[in-house]
Amino acid sequence: MTAVPGRLRLTVLGCSTALPAPDAAAAGFLVEHDDTAILLDVGQGVANRLGRVADARELAGVFIGHMHADHFLDLAGLRYLFPWAGRGSSRLPVHLPPGGTSRLDELASAISERAGFFDDAYAVDEYDPGATFTVGQLKLRFAPGRHYVPAWGVSVETPDGARLVYTGDTGPSQSMVEFARGADLLLVEATLNDASEDDVERGHLTAPEAIDLARDAQVGSALLVHYPPDRRPELDRLCAAAGPWIRPAVPELSLTIGREIESGPGAALSPAATP
Ligand SMILES: [Zn+2]
Ligand SMILES: [Zn+2]
Fold first, then answer.
1. From ligand 2's centre to the CA of 65, what distance in Å?
2. CB 156 within 8 A of CB 143
3. 180 contacts 167 by C-beta, under 8 angstroms
4. Looking at the whole model, is its pTM more than 0.70?
5. Residue 44 half-sphere exposure, CB side, CA atoms within 13 Å?
6. What residues are neighbours of ligand 1 (ion), with CB under 5 Å?
7. Of 115, 144, 163, 264, which one's alpha carbon is 20 to 30 angstroms from that of 256?
């Protein structure tokens, strides 16, 4: 992994939905800044892919936006990388949303592991979504998504003000627009083929709604995430019509984020000339 000092680097580990797909994992994004590497979400399939680019034992933390399987289930898989009696300083910090700890305990039980299964490997806590969280030199803030269960988007900011925002799962939301406003890079979910697929109380976005959210937030650039891979050609077309500042994320895409986006391997994203 080539890192540029002082710059945020994003690697897409998974950008699919809960629907199994042969070549795509569910939600998982590796964010690196100097010696600090964090993982945003760890849905099914992400643990396997993480191993190609980073050692889970060297992560500074894992942040889970909400407790749906496609955002946290591979915490079970990652657990097996750690020693069974490894209580000590090497535990991986795992930051769950409010109420997440009991869900993780229930997961240990559901997979026939003993109580404390995760605690030997992970230093688990629940973040306060109203507070700013510091990890390394990065500042993380959270904002509620519009979803079927409590769900949080996250903003990751460097000391020089470069900012990545990830919506997590959300329906159309003006507060998410405000949270994302001016981000250098926005990861915006684009789950639905059509809004009629959603509940009356919305919990996901269509691709046009995702593009509108990114445009309204006047972000520098954006990647559509959390979409079924077979819809990528359609999303490519929609993004091409919107401009070169937005495109669908693809697995293993890696980008350096600064005040502008640099092209990386497989990256053809360029910042918006005008918001
Ligand atoms: Zn969800
Ligand atoms: Zn999801």
1. 9
2. no
3. yes
4. yes
5. 10
6. 68, 169
7. 144
